Automatic annotation (TrEMBL):
Keywords of this entry: Membrane, Transmembrane, Transmembrane helix
Species for this entry: Intestinicryptomonas porci
Name this protein carries in UniProt: DUF2752 domain-containing protein
Membrane spanning residue stretches: 7-25, 37-58, 70-86, 92-109
Keyword Phosphoprotein: no
A matching Pfam family: DUF2752
Amino acid sequence: MQSFKWRIGILVLGILWCIAVYFGNPNNPNSLLPACPTYKFLGIYCAGCGSTRALYALLHLDFAMAIRQNVFFVCLIPFIVMGIFYPKTTSVKYVPLTILIAMIVYIILRNMDYFYFLAPIKS
């Protein structure tokens, strides 16, 4: 029962965040939505950089822009949804480790000049 309450809580927070992003427009420099602290303080793109703008694009059905902002986040959404509704499928031994390794590789690649297309579009 406790697991069910946590899943409902996460789902409600996710819906509220989607509503805030839908109306908040993170592409606007005066937006109240937070900027990435990793990029702000360290000057490198983390795995989450551009994910708010990608979510904004997805909510406005601009799939190409969502992928351009953060392809890792867009590909991770099905796993997030499965983790909320079917937690046993993502508790398999190697799923978290695989996602972690993919995230580290993505962070390294998107900060290399050769893979400039993985970096989010600056607003």
